[in-house]
Amino acid sequence: MFATVESFIKEYQQESATTQQLLDALTDESLQQPQAEGYRTLGFIAWHLVHNDKGMLHMAGLKFEAPSASSEPPSHAAAIADAYRATSQGIIEAVRTQLTDAKLQEVVHMFGMQWTISETLYNYVKHEIHHRGQLTILMRQAGVPVIGAYGPAKEQWANVGMPIPAF
C-alpha cells in the first residue's frame, strides 16, 4: 500500500512510463490481434488501459479527464497512446492536488468491498500491470516488439551485454 501521496506518484510514474512505451510501439494493424475467438482484441485491451481505470479512481473520489468507458477503441494506435499519455498525466495531477497522506487512509466502497484509498491506488496499479501483461502477449502474437518491464525482453538481452537465455 502507499503511505504517502508522493510514494504513489513515484510508483505510478514508473509503471505508466512502461505502459506508455508499449502503447507507443503499437501499430494500427496490431490493434486487431485477438486473444482468441470471441475474446477482446489487443486494441480493446490497450483502450481499456486508457478509460476503465477512471472508474476505480473515480469511485475513490478523484476527478480527472479520461475518455468514456463506453467509447469505442480508436482504429489508430497513436490515438490510444496519446489518450493514455493525457489520462496518466491527469491521474498524477489529480492525486497530487486532490489527495493528502491522511486522506489515503479514508475508506471507500469498491466493488462490494471496503478499501482505503491507499488500497485503491495500489490495486489500480496492479490492475494496469495485469492488463499490460495481456498486452505484451498480444503484441508478440501480432509481431510487435515488446520491452521488458522488470528485466530485459528477449530482444533486449544484447543491449545489456548478455546472451539470450536458452529455452
Characterization of the model:
- It is a single chain.
- With 167 residues, the protein is mainly α.
- It has a single domain (5-160), classed as Four Helix Bundle (Hemerythrin (Met), subunit A) (Up-down Bundle), CATH 1.20.120.450.
- The chain is built from 5 helices and 2 strands, in the order H-H-H-H-E-E-H.
- A two-stranded antiparallel ribbon has the order 1-2.
- Strand 1 (107-110) and strand 2 form a beta hairpin.
- It is globular.
- The termini are far apart.
- The relative contact order is 0.19.
- This is Damage-inducible protein DinB.
- It holds the Pfam family DinB.
- InterPro entries: DinB, DinB/YfiT-like.
- Keywords: Metal-binding.
- Belongs to the DinB family.
Write the layout of secondary structure elements.
Layout: H1 5-25, H2 42-51, H3 53-59, H4 77-98, E1 107-110, E2 113-116, H5 117-141
Antiparallel strand pairs: 1-2
Helix pairs in contact: 1-4, 1-5, 2-4, 2-5
Keywords: Metal-binding
Protein name: Damage-inducible protein DinB
Family: Belongs to the DinB family.
The topology string of helices and strands comes to: HHHHEEH
Instruction: Catalogue the unreliable spans.
Output: none
| N-to-C CA distance | 36 Å
Strand content: under 5%
How many E-type strands?
2
| Tally of structural domains | 1
Remind me, CATH topology? Four Helix Bundle (Hemerythrin (Met), subunit A)
Strand order, sheet with most strands: 1-2
Q: How helical, in percent, are the residues?
A: 40-55%
Oligomer: single chain
**General form:** globular
CATH architecture: Up-down Bundle
Count of helical stretches: 5
Give average pLDDT, whole number: 92
* CATH top level assignment: Mainly Alpha
| CA-based gyration radius | 17 Å
Largest sheet: 2 strands, antiparallel
CATH superfamily: dinb family like domain
Structural class: mainly alpha
